[in-house]
Amino acid sequence: MKYKPGDIAEFEVINKKSFPDDREYFVLQDASAMRFLLPAKRYSHYSIECGIYIKCRIDRINCNGRIFLEPFHPYLHKGSSYVFEVYSLFQSNLINIASLKDQLGYDYMVMLRPDYRPSEKILCRVKKISKAKVHLVSEVANPQWLSPPQEGLYTMKNIGIYSHPSGNRFCLAYHPIFGVDLIPLNSVVDAGFEKSPFLQCFVYTDDYEIPRFEPVPAGLWPGKEKELYFDSYDSKMDCMRGPKTIMIVNDGLGNEYEISLGNSKYITMPFGNPVKCRVKKIKKGRPVFELIP
Fold this sequence. Notes:
Layout: E1 8-18, E2 24-29, E3 35-39, E4 53-61, E5 67-71, E6 81-91, E7 96-101, E8 107-112, E9 121-130, E10 133-138, E11 152-163, E12 169-175, E13 179-184, H1 185-191, E14 198-205, E15 211-215, E16 225-238, E17 242-250, E18 256-260, E19 274-283, E20 286-291
Antiparallel strand pairs: 1-2, 1-4, 2-3, 4-5, 6-7, 6-9, 7-8, 9-10, 11-12, 11-14, 12-13, 14-15, 16-17, 16-19, 17-18, 19-20
């Protein structure tokens, strides 16, 4: 069966298995007997068990054709609005962030206009659900930001650190047009901007038309070519496709990177040999390189 992002289909949960990456996955099967893996821990609160059928949305399909499923949330639905309890409020002159709980006690957060002070409860709409994370927007005080005219590199202002009551910490990156995004603090640290008043970010609009900021290490934006140096090879297990070859390279400054070669054979080369690479994307503050043919 051929799928595209956004499609909805029903899948049977036929097994739960442990894989070499020390994680447990549900094994799902569609009507044509095609099988998929679903991380068990991520969806532990979804009441998924072997022998049942669940509906999933095709969340995305990567460049290798791998399909990622997003099961329907047990009680929250994209586009619907719900009342949440406000139990904490972060305030600044640019943005307010409310920490919320639903009727079962699960945590969420939502960004609000700086002039809005919510009461004990707030009405929010589900903007998207991806990787079991629910993204909310306020029905009455949603900040009105614009999407970037085109994806690219922009300078953001580091306006502070937001500590969520759950213990997660985020950098507040601000742009006067695109607004504020919460960037996990470890991504900012990895990109080298922890103590900087400004961040260089690659800005793009996601599939839900939400501006997203990815902190970019100095000079390493997507598409940038860079010469790295060969260290060694390694092999890692891909749960869907079996072992894959990894080339380990360095930049000569002590930073190591892994380049996935899929099922390619080893390319014989001496230690320290220059390797022409290109930044494929930025992920969590680190560049992901690919080889230039």
